[in-house]
Design goal:
With 158 residues, the protein is mainly alpha-helical. The chain contains five helices and no strands.
């Protein structure tokens, strides 16, 4: 179970880092049309959010017995729920507000003076939450690191 949990956690954290810190910046650096880059990045962040929700649910199921058994298990549980909360706030609260600003801005995009500041504030909050989730993900991976005297030692001895 622990190996499966590690695999899911790596998928989750890897997707966060890949989309947020490789793909999205590359889109804005490569495409000359910032509106198009933002649209594509937004689509990728939506897919990533659903992947995050899926991974969180799977981890909660896989780790439920381990979570109550040890202090590290409780730490893992808190990390998973914190990351899930970050995803839910960003995807279901901030992203709809940002999307409505994009729609209101029309073809000129969110760089229009009347929405630029509002969008910038929401984008900043969203970016901070994403960074927090990414860092919590690193803590999750470290918390799920193999323990020399734990389950991994038993598996290695077989």
């Amino acid at each position: 179970m622990l190996r499966a949990a590690r695999l899911i956690a790596v998928l989750w954290v890897g997707s966060l880092w890949t989309v947020g810190y490789l793909v999205a910046p590359t889109l804005f650096a490569t495409l000359s049309d910032r509106v198009q880059a933002g649209t594509i990045a937004g689509s990728m962040f939506r897919v990533e959010a659903w992947l995050s929700i899926f991974c969180a649910i799977v981890l909660i199921v896989l780790l439920r017995s381990r979570s109550s058994a040890s202090r590290n298990g409780r730490r893992v549980q808190v990390l998973v729920f914190s990351m899930l909360a970050a995803t839910l706030v960003s995807h279901f609260a901030l992203q709809p507000l940002m999307a409505s600003l994009r729609e209101a801005a029309g073809p000129t995009g969110v760089m229009a003076p009347d929405v630029k500041m509002q969008f910038g504030i929401l984008h900043g909050i969203s970016s901070a939450i994403y960074l927090l989730e990414s860092l919590l993900g690193v803590a999750l991976l470290l918390a799920l690191d193999p323990e020399p005297n734990g389950e991994d030692a038993e598996l290695a001895a077989r």
